[in-house]
Structure formats: structure tokens, C-alpha cells
Design goal:
This protein is of the alpha/beta class and 286 residues long. It has one domain: 3-Layer(aba) Sandwich (Rossmann fold), CATH 3.40.50.300. The protein has 9 helices and 9 strands. It has helices at 7-12, 17-28, 74-82, 122-133, 138-146, 162-174, 192-207, 242-249, 254-270; strands spanning 34-45, 48-59, 63-67, 88-93, 107-110, 180-184, 211-216, 227-232, 235-240. Strand 6 (180-184), helix 7 (192-207) and strand 7 (211-216) form a beta-alpha-beta unit. Helix 5 (138-146) crosses helix 6 and helix 8 packs across helix 9. Mean pLDDT is 84; it is low at 1-30 and 279-286.
Length: 286
């Protein structure tokens, strides 16, 4: 659903207006094909650093997987992008600071837990969120079809399974036709058929120009993405593709390749002169 809060949180961090204007101008002056740019992003909580200087660039109309074990910082990064997480560093989303008024209604954010009204039907939920976003009501039926809920649309969400309720959340985000879609583990708990259908939907949505960032702890989902961001313990280990990760690491599976990448990073940390398996920042390209 559309982001309605967060801009004030950015101001509350103490950044002067001149800094915010500079960030917005600097992104508008760069490659217009970049939907999201993150530079030296850091998040601290209770005196502890959660994210450690992340650099990310996502190209428009791509599907990027954000992969890593639970607790590695995936959700924190996503919250920073949509404007509901305090942070340090530079973040620009669709040419604006996260949560800025000009960008709120252009972002769809789906959390891990279904954020819908369970006493309403799926169709009623979508109509409500469509009205908030000023979207045409025809989009309600389209969104229901995309997530495969047309047959269940007039049942109360309270009667749905967990996976079905999560699909209602996704449909509520889609109904506003967002330019950026941020999905926090949307396939958790879904059966293989539904998972396959959703990934086909993600590809179709991206083909229309929407940029998608989707998190998962299931490494095999990397094969479905244009590129993947691999995270561990609040650090970005690599920006790569599934095939490149296998090739560079010599891993037989993506899980094996990820473990090899972790060991390489640990060796590099112990011996800075050692060459990592994958190094440098890459922009996510088509």
C-alpha cells in the first residue's frame, strides 16, 4: 500500500533542508534509468550499527532479489527505502528522499505480515486502498487477477489462509500501479504453484516499467531475478546474478555458492590484501 508517513522522520534526523534539496537535485541530475540509489547507508539502534555502509543502485523496470539469512538486515534496508526507518547516508528513491510527499503514492510496500482489514472482503480492501491512492476502480479487478484471488474476492479476509491474506496485501499495493514495489518475503508459506504464479506476475509487472525489490531467504529464488543483493550481518556481500555467483564461486548450488562467498569475505577481513571472489559495486541492469 502507498507510503503515507516517513518524510518527517527524515527531517527529525537533523538533516538541514539544504541537504535534502541537494540529495534530490543530485539524483535528478544522474542517470534517469536508476530508480533507487543508496550510498553509505547506515542504521543504528541502541548504540549498535545494524546496517554497515551499504551502496546499492537499482535500475528501472528490473526485479532485484534481496537475499540473505533471517536477521541480516533485509527488512531494515527496505524500511529505509520506503521512508519509515531512520538512517544515515544518502538514499534517493525515484529522484526524492524516501517518504517525501512527491514520492509517497508512487511506492508500494508489502510487509511480511498481511496489513489488510480482515473483517472486509478482498475486493472491499482493494477498493478502499484504491480510493486512498486516487486509482481507477478498474484496477481492483486487474490486481485481483494478478494475485489469483478473483474467485475468493468476495469472501472476508478472516476466512483466508495466511498465504491468501498475504496475496491480498500484494494486490492492495498493486492497485495504485506503483513505480517502485518493495516486497518483504512475499512468497513465504506459499505452495509451489502459487509461488510460481506470483513470480510470473512480478515479471509481467516489471515488464511494464515497475521496479521491484523482493526479499527472500530462499536462495533458489535468485534465478528468478535480474540481479541479486546478497546480505549478511548488515553488510552487502555482493551485487550479482545467480549464474555469475555460481561461476565466480565454483559452487554447485546457490546455497553452496553463498557459503563460499561468506568464507571469502571472512578471509578478506582477516587478510585485507586477499582478493575477494566478487568485489566492487555493480548497478542492477536489465
Amino acid at each position: 500500500m502507498s507510503i503515507s508517513k516517513g518524510y518527517d522522520a527524515i527531517l527529525a534526523q537533523g538533516f538541514p533542508a539544504s541537504y535534502i534539496h541537494h540529495m534530490m537535485k543530485s539524483v535528478n541530475d544522474t542517470d534517469s534509468d536508476i530508480a533507487v540509489r543508496v550510498e553509505n547507508l547506515r542504521v543504528r539502534r541502541g548504540g549498535h550499527e545494524i546496517l554497515h555502509g551499504l551502496d546499492v543502485a537499482l535500475s528501472t523496470g528490473t526485479v532485484t532479489g534481496l537475499l540473505g539469512p533471517s536477521g541480516c538486515g533485509k527488512t531494515t534496508l527496505m524500511r529505509a527505502l520506503v521512508g519509515v526507518q531512520r538512517y544515515e547516508g544518502g538514499v534517493a528513491v525515484l529522484g526524492h528522499v524516501p517518504g517525501a510527499p512527491d514520492v509517497r503514492d508512487r511506492i508500494g510496500y508489502v510487509t511480511q505480515s498481511a496489513a489488510v482489514y480482515k473483517d472486509l472482503t478482498a475486493r472491499q480492501n482493494l477498493r478502499y486502498f484504491a480510493s486512498l491512492a486516487g486509482s481507477r476502480m478498474q484496477g481492483v479487478d486487474e490486481a485481483l487477477e494478478v494475485v489469483g484471488l478473483t474467485a475468493l474476492a468476495d469472501r472476508r479476509v478472516s476466512t483466508y489462509s495466511g498465504g491468501e491474506a498475504n496475496r491480498v496485501s500484494l494486490a492492495c499495493a498493486l492497485v495504485a500501479n506503483p513505480e517502485l514495489l518493495v516486497l518483504d518475503e512475499p512468497t513465504v508459506g506459499l505452495d509451489p504453484v502459487t509461488r510460481e504464479d506470483l513470480w510470473e506476475a512480478f515479471r509481467a509487472i516489471a515488464a511494464r516499467g515497475t521496479t521491484i525489490l523482493v526479499s527472500s531467504h530462499v536462495m533458489d529464488e535468485a534465478f528468478r531475478c535480474d540481479a541479486v543483493l546478497l546480505m549478511r550481518e548488515g553488510r552487502l556481500l555482493a551485487t550479482t546474478t545467480a549464474s555469475e555467483l555460481l561461476e565466480r564461486t565454483g559452487g554447485t548450488t546457490l546455497d553452496d555458492a553463498f557459503l563460499r562467498l561468506i568464507r571469502s569475505a571472512e578471509r578478506t577481513a582477516r587478510a585485507p590484501d586477499a582478493a575477494p571472489i566478487i568485489s566492487g559495486r555493480q548497478e542492477v541492469a536489465r
